[in-house]
Amino acid sequence: MEEEGRKLLEEGIRKKLISPGRGELSTFPDGTKVVFHYRTRLSDGTVLDDSRTMGGRSKPMELILGKKFKLSVWERILITMKQGEVLTPGSFQLDMWAMTDKEQLDSVPQIHEKGNALFKEGKIKEAMEKYYNAIACLKNLQMKVWKQFGLHVALLVLL
């Protein structure tokens, strides 16, 4: 469990435990169906979704592991939980596709710094992945600007 917690932290996910659950931590191979209740909130406490009250009925979420769920952080957290475990909202880094343009741009220096730290630790492969992600983010933003302002901006950049 401690190892899984360390991996989550390395990925920028913070998990805050309210109730530890019971039994041993299970292993969940891809294709495992996970059923759970959830409540998502903004940082100010405003409830966005609650599986117990949505639509006037209590219907738990069902997720098939390994199927590229749109919020991958849920899958990462779920596989580290025991039956009956309860968490309070923690924090996590959004996947790039889920970020606004401003959030993407703001994240590039942070990703770069993480890459530098990994490089200094001798973790070259992991550092390269961070650098690649930062560059991919910038290229994505650049393509949006080109589409917004037209090809003439692209030509000016090349000159």
From TrEMBL:
Swiss-Prot/TrEMBL catalytic activity: [protein]-peptidylproline (omega=180) = [protein]-peptidylproline (omega=0)
Pfam families associated with the record: PPIase_AIP
Keywords, comma-separated and alphabetical: Cytoplasm, Isomerase, Phosphoprotein, Repeat, Rotamase, TPR repeat
Annotated localization: Cytoplasm
Major localisation: cytoplasm
Residue ranges of domain PPIase FKBP-type in the record: 31-85
EC number: 5.2.1.8
The protein's name in its UniProt record: peptidylprolyl isomerase
The organism's taxonomic lineage, starting at the top: Eukaryota, Metazoa, Chordata, Craniata, Vertebrata
